[in-house]
Design goal:
315 residues; alpha+beta; Ribosomal Protein S5, domain 2; 2 domains
């Protein structure tokens, strides 16, 4: 049902952990922080204009047609036949680029969602998915919803088919927490994808499918033991780990501190651990952070439940 238009909308789009070890390009979840904020308001001048970008060190274009948030919003407005609507947009980047935390996805989701809210919410969150995907794809050329899906909808999202955008939310066990550590290095997604094999041995594929199925069953049954046995990546992690200093030391530290599982968030360099309970997540996160700190690699630690809300209006 169409709602009344608003004068101004500010939204927050959260960071996400993609792949979740065994679910390459088909699994992801949202966390509470960090994230991006987008503000939109009506304007007398026709068209969508980005008037301000903060936190990007001048890296992002103000031209809406070249910005992930702008592309997503424009695609939505085109679909609705509203490209002549006067809208001003501000983008406030509050998460690092090339972090493996879905920075491009967060901006795209925030752009589409904010404009949708401003004009009276003609579409549901799930209906915004293809427009947010178009925005993210404008940045890296890829079309996979393991960041956009959870950022938009919240929770843990499984993608049966990326081209069809056939996605579903999975149950989140009540004591499931995540510890995410971002070491201050940048890894471009195209580099992380470029080192992956074009062919994978059948044995590895079978093992990965088993792990993915086990993780999904573990989430549904709230079986932390099964979750722990399933959070293993035998395809991407062995090749991408060399891009992250001290990766295996960090993994040993996390598992030694009680993590259910540990792997690379998206393309990296951020890493994540799934944990049972907040105290465990804090202990695990501190242990991983200490590994990077010991080699003078500054890093940020985020401890969070799985964010079930996704993008949301904050003002």
């Amino acid at each position: 049902m169409q709602r009344e238009e608003k004068k101004e909308v500010r939204v927050f789009a959260p960071a996400t952990v993609a792949n979740v070890a065994c679910g390459y390009d088909v699994l992801g979840f949202a966390i509470d922080a960090p994230g991006d904020e987008v503000v939109v308001r009506h304007s007398e001048e026709p068209g969508l204009r980005i008037t301000q970008i903060t936190g990007d060190d001048g890296k992002l274009p103000l031209e809406a047609e070249k910005n992930t948030a702008g592309v997503a919003a424009l695609d939505l407005l085109k679909h609705l036949g509203m490209l002549d609507r006067g809208i001003e947009m501000e983008i406030h980047k509050k998460m690092p680029f090339g972090s493996g935390l879905g920075s491009s996805a967060a901006s795209a989701v925030a752009g589409a969602y904010a404009v949708n809210c401003l004009i009276g919410e003609p579409l549901t969150k799930k209906q915004l998915l293809p427009f947010a995907m178009t925005g993210e794809a404008s940045a890296d050329g890829a079309w996979h919803a393991d960041n956009v899906g959870p950022c938009l909808l919240g929770g843990i999202v499984f993608i049966r088919d990326n081209q069809e955008l056939d996605i579903a939310n999975l149950p989140v066990p009540k004591d499931l927490w995540a510890a995410v550590v971002h070491p201050d290095i940048e890894i471009l997604t195209k580099v992380a994808r470029g080192i992956l094999p074009t062919e994978v041995p059948l044995e590895n594929v079978t093992q990965q499918i088993g792990n993915l199925g086990g993780l999904i069953c573990g989430l549904i049954q709230e079986d932390y033991g099964l979750i722990s046995r399933s959070v293993h990546d035998v395809i991407a992690e062995p090749r991408r780990q060399k891009l992250i200093p001290e990766f295996y030391k960090a993994k040993r530290a996390a598992l030694g501190a009680g993590a259910l599982g540990f792997s690379i968030s998206g393309a990296g360099p951020s890493v994540f651990a799934l944990c049972e309970g907040e105290e465990s997540a804090k202990k695990v996160g501190a242990s991983v952070s200490a590994v990077f700190t010991k080699v003078d690699l500054t890093n940020q630690l985020y401890v969070s439940r799985v964010n079930k809300t996704g993008v949301t209006v904050i003002g």
